[in-house]
Amino acid sequence: MGKFAFIIHPIELEDIFRKFGFLRFFPKRIVETLIKKMSPSKVSDITGIKSPYGETEGWFVSCPLTSRQMVELPLDYVLNKIIKAGKVCEELGADIIGLGAMTSVVGDAGITIAENLEAAVTTGNSYTVATALEGTKKAAHLMDIDLERAEVLVVGATGSIGSAAARILARECKYLTLLARDERKLDYLSRQIMKETGLAVRSTSNIKRALPSADIIIAVTGSAEAVIKGEDLKPGAVVCDVARPRDVSKAVAEKRKDVLVIEGGVVQVPGPVSFNFDFGFPPGTSYACMAETMILALEERYENFSLGRDIRVSQIDTISRLAEKHNFKLAGFRSFERAISEEEILAVKEGAKEKVAQGSRV
């Protein structure tokens, strides 16, 4: 039986305060200094993962740095700390290690980390893309959005997840816009998509201009802070926020009842799984990046799978097939860490109609 480990980290200081409440009384800079001095360690055992073809178990291992620290601290320091967390995973007995949240983004997206570990490494990005697109299509259908005719926007299009998502979407939609900061990379991706699909895509680095016309948005920037604000979104838009930390401001949920924001990559794990750690999901569900690590362990494919900035479409097809084989499934819809029903989605659709009607009367 193959075993796995998944490296997690505190997204923000609030995650630290939930575990160590007394630290709330200290200045933030002191708390951040304390975090830097903490060593990686095991958080919990993960048990009960069973598919028709086998079973696996693993561990959550913490890399004690916040998202902001991973962006702002020297890259060598951050990578070294993640590698140390990987060493803890290996000591526990992991055959394959998954990189969670910002640990999969910093530097060269896992390549250097893999080169310094004996166990196989994956970011989980291949299955993240697959489930994000599946969920977005289902949500768009419920919102009466025709993918083929919709204005589709990929925010963070030149990253590993964004570029793969854009290349797959280009097969199915006619109006696709790519958004990222690096215009040279945008131009390269645009030409790549034209060669593969014949679709002429638009590209921009101006998010304020791109958001208001988009019907469907895939958000995958890897930014440490939210980049999508409520005032920029079109009534009735569907936003799939794949990024962790999130790309969509929490204020959107409070102020925009006419916009649907879903989380990409929420998966039902087969078997009586117990994570022994609360990361905000219903029992038995996980992020797709975690699920990819489990799937590869079940298959005993101890190989570096989703690494670097270029996730191949063939990788996405492969992990989707393996997920189906082992009974991993999309687990409905979630928005801002809570499950949402189809009835709630229909209420958002009605809110969008009312918003449009109000605008037409002004």
Helix content: 25-40%
The end-to-end span amounts to 64 Å
Q: Numbering strands along the chain, what is their spatial order in the largest sheet?
A: 8-7-6-9-10-11
What Rg do the Cα atoms give?
20 Å
Strand content: 15-25%
**Helix-strand sequence:** EHHEEHHEHEHEHEHEHEEHEEEHHEEEH
Mean pLDDT: 92
Number of helices: 13
Structural class: alpha/beta
What is the count of β-strands? 16
The tally of domains stands at 2
Largest sheet: 6 strands, parallel
Instruction: Report the uncertain regions.
Output: none
Shape: globular
Top keywords for this entry?
globular, five-stranded mixed β-sheet, six-stranded parallel β-sheet, alpha/beta, Rossmann fold, 362 residues, 20% strand, 2 domains, 39% helix, 13 helices
Task: Please outline the helices and strands.
Elements: E1 3-8, H1 13-19, H2 28-37, E2 41-51, E3 54-62, H3 67-72, H4 75-92, E4 96-99, H5 111-115, E5 120-122, H6 125-142, E6 151-155, H7 160-169, E7 175-179, H8 183-197, E8 202-204, H9 207-210, E9 216-219, E10 238-241, H10 251-255, E11 260-263, E12 266-268, E13 285-287, H11 288-298, H12 313-325, E14 329-330, E15 333-335, E16 338-340, H13 342-361
Parallel strand pairs: 1-3, 1-4, 4-5, 6-7, 6-9, 7-8, 9-10, 10-11
Antiparallel strand pairs: 2-3, 12-13, 12-14, 15-16
Helix pairs in contact: 6-7, 6-11, 6-12
